[in-house]
Every structure is written in C-alpha cells, then in structure tokens.
C-alpha cells in the first residue's frame, strides 16, 4: 500500500466483553490494532494512524493521526468497555479526523471493528457509504462476534456502495482457535501491506508471494514482540558460540595428535664430547698427533 492516513475505530461496547475470541473480543481488537499499525507504518514510514472508539455514550477520538505507537497503546489502555455501539456516528467522526490530516497527499482510510449488533438500518448505512465514497474515503470492515444474517447483510450493503478505486474490504472472521490478528493477516485488508509474519505466520496475499516470516530475522517482527525477538537472538548467539567452541576444540585436538605422530630425528653424534669441547670430525688428541707427524716429515734444508 502507498501513503495513507488510517483511522482505526474499535468496538468497546458491552458485547466486546465476550470471550468467544481469545482472550476476549476487546483484547483481540487490541492485538489486531498493533498488527495494523505495524503494517501501515512499515509499508510507508510517512503513513499515519489514528484511533477512536464508538461505544459508550458516543464516539471518542482517542489518538489523532500519528506515527508514534506509544500514543496508540496509551489510547487503548484508556479505553473503557461500556454502552452500545454507534456505528454511523463513529464513521462520520473518523471521516472528520481524516479531513484534518496534515499531509493532504495521504489517501484516506477507515478500518472499523464491529462485534456487536448494528442499530442503524440498511438505508442509513447505504446513504453514509455513498457519502464516504464521494469524499474518497475507503472503509474496511472487520466483522466478528455478532455474525447474524441481519448484521452481515447490512455490512455487505455498505461495502457494495462504498467501494472505490483504492478498494474497501469486508472481512468476516468467525470464532476459532486462532487469534483475531492471525486471521486478519490473510484478509485483503492487510494483504497488500507486506505485514505477513508479524505474528510469526506467512501472509497468503503478500506481494511477490513471499511469506511474512522471511521479512524479519527469525520470522518475528521486533516491533511487535521485542521480548521474543531478543530471546531468539540470544539463543541463536549462544548456539553459535557453542558451535564455534566445539570447532576450536576439535581443531586443537587434531593438531595435537598430528604433532605426536611426528618422530624426532636421532642425532648422528652429540654436540659436545666428553671433555666438553665441540665435537667435529675428530677429537683434539687426534689433531695434536697429526701436527706432530707433520713436523717429523719436514726436511732440514739448512
């Protein structure tokens, strides 16, 4: 995906307390928000993400558009579960937040989590969808939890009328053993962002056909799970050090064995004779006798 400004709208109504999604509907949304933020900012560092809730008495902007994930985490921690959801109003408020983005070259996108019954009728949603499309705002829906026919029918009608050039998607995720964020990876909502292995899994729709696990060292995104990434790195370095040590010990052992197999050459004669003189081809006495013999052979020419 290109340069985008994305507002994430979470469902903090009473329905988000249910535990049919691990660990709960609300906590599952928090994990998914983490994944979406990483996907958007990694796809383009200049992309920004905002956060708002649509439960309680009315929608509330928790974090304006930012590239600081710490602010998004703080907004999630401040969110309280209460009341009913206000879907149509929440989308309109998110649209206003996108309108005031600083970088006007950013494309506008709203990602809405919904896990509760939709109170608005289909006509109201269709009218809102056409308005969003006119303002060039793409809207992605992540439907989970309350998946009755009435809810899905309204969301499908909204999605059909809001589709534009940049694409608006509807992901319906039923309960299951996997995390909501793991299921979200394979949906078209994140398929183009190259997020893939943020949760240690490959993305089925990643561009180039690469699995997300190949994009990060050890298949884990450090920004999403720094503790796991650090533990894997330390384990890798310890194993590498152990293998290097074994290799050195093996080389030293082989070198020692090779030295022991070499026999020392025996000396033909000792370096010193019995008198402590340097040994040569003959002893000193032999040299003296030779000198005497040489003297006896001399002729007297006088």
How would you describe what is shown here?
- The structure is a single chain.
- The chain has 302 residues and is an alpha/beta fold.
- It is 42% helix and 13% strand.
- It contains 9 helices and 6 strands; from the N terminus they run βαββααβαβαβαααα.
- It has helices at 25-43, 69-78, 87-99, 122-134, 149-162, 180-185, 188-191, 226-260, 284-296; strands at residues 4-10, 48-53, 60-66, 107-114, 137-143, 170-172.
- Strands 3-2-1-4-5-6 form a 6-stranded mixed β-sheet, sandwiched between helices.
- Helix 1 links the parallel strand 1 and strand 2.
- Helix 4 (122-134) runs parallel beside helix 5 (149-162).
- The longest helix is centred in the last third of the chain and has 35 residues, at 226-260.
- The radius of gyration is 40 Å and the shape is elongated.
- Mean pLDDT is 80; it is low at 193-215.
């Amino acid at each position: 995906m290109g340069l985008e400004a994305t507002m994430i709208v979470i469902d903090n109504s009473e329905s988000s307390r249910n535990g049919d999604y691990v660990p709960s509907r609300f906590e599952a949304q928090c994990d998914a928000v983490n994944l979406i933020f990483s996907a958007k900012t990694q796809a383009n560092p200049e992309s920004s993400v905002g956060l708002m809730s649509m439960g309680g008495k009315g929608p509330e902007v928790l974090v304006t558009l930012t590239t600081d994930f710490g602010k998004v985490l703080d907004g999630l921690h401040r969110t309280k579960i209460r009341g009913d959801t206000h879907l149509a109003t929440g989308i309109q408020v998110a649209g206003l937040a996108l309108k005031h983005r600083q970088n006007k070259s950013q494309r506008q996108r709203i990602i809405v989590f919904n896990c509760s019954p939709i109170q608005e009728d289909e006509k109201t949603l269709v009218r809102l969808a056409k308005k969003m499309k006119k303002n060039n705002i793409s809207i992605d829906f992540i439907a989970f939890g309350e998946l009755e026919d009435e809810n899905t029918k309204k969301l499908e009608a909204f999605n059909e009328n809001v589709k534009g050039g940049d694409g608006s998607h509807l992901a319906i995720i039923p309960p299951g053993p996997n995390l909501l964020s793991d299921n979200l990876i394979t949906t078209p909502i994140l398929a183009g962002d190259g997020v893939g292995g943020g949760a240690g899994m490959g993305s089925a729709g990643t561009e180039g056909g690469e699995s997300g696990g190949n994009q990060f060292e050890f298949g884990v995104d450090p920004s999403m799970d720094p503790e796991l990434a650090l533990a894997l790195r330390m384990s890798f370095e310890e194993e590498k050090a152990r293998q290097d040590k074994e290799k050195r010990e093996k080389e030293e052992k082989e070198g020692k064995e090779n030295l022991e197999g070499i026999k020392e050459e025996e000396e033909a004669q000792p370096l010193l004779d019995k008198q402590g003189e340097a040994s040569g081809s003959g002893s000193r006495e032999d040299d003296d006798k030779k000198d005497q013999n040489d003297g006896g052979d001399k002729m007297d020419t006088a």
